[in-house]
Amino acid sequence: MVEPIEDLVVIHTDGGCRPNPGPGGWGAVLRHRQHVREMYGGESGQTSNNRMELLAPIMALEALTRPVMVHLHTDSTYVRNGITKWVLGWQRNGWMTAAKQPVKNVDLWQRLQAACARHQVEWFWVKGHAGIADNELADALATRGLQEALALRQPTIGALSR
């Protein structure tokens, strides 16, 4: 029998824009034992799908109050591959790609690296819009973040706890 990991936090994230680029939103669902926290936010100005997909795990990881083991699920191959395969090479190359171009969203990649450094994070890719409940909820939260940002015409951050 496998012992449950007491300090495991399972996170699902999503982000997007309508249109891309354009206003955007991000959402995250954090589960720790029986506790659930839903987070969302948005930008009413010009942003991109990739920036919103990056901001979701950043905000979720930064919300954790102590170091824990994290299983982080994203439907963004850009985020998963970036943090697990590309980021160390970009950093080593002075934040330049293999094609000698500046890395896009370097501010968020650096912030994501710092957020990950506090925890033991294992990354998982999930297919979007495939009926995975917490991925669908993260998508709905991202839409809510976008809608609230547009209604307020300023950046928003919201959180719900159950």
Short description:
Its cofactor is Mg(2+). This protein has 162 residues and is α/β, with parallel strands linked by helices. 39% of the residues lie in helices and 32% in strands.
The fourth-level CATH homologous superfamily is Ribonuclease H-like superfamily/Ribonuclease H
> How big a fraction of the residues is strand?
25-35%
Which runs of at least 5 residues are low in confidence (pLDDT < 50)?
none
- Tally of helical segments: 4
Q: Estimate the helix proportion, in percent.
A: 25-40%
Separation, N- and C-terminal Cα atoms: 30 Å
CATH class: Alpha Beta
Strand order of the largest sheet: 5-4-1-2-3-6
CATH topology (level 3) name? Nucleotidyltransferase, domain 5
Quick one: biggest sheet?
A: 6 strands, mixed
How many strands appear in the DSSP assignment? Answer: 6
Strand-pairing-aware structural class: alpha/beta
User: What is the mean predicted local confidence, pLDDT?
Assistant: 92
State the oligomer. single chain
Overall spatial form: globular
Rg is 16 Å
- Can you write the helix and strand succession as a string? EEEHEHHEHE
Protein name: Ribonuclease H
Function: Endonuclease that specifically degrades the RNA of RNA-DNA hybrids.
Catalytic activity: Endonucleolytic cleavage to 5'-phosphomonoester
Cofactor: Mg(2+)
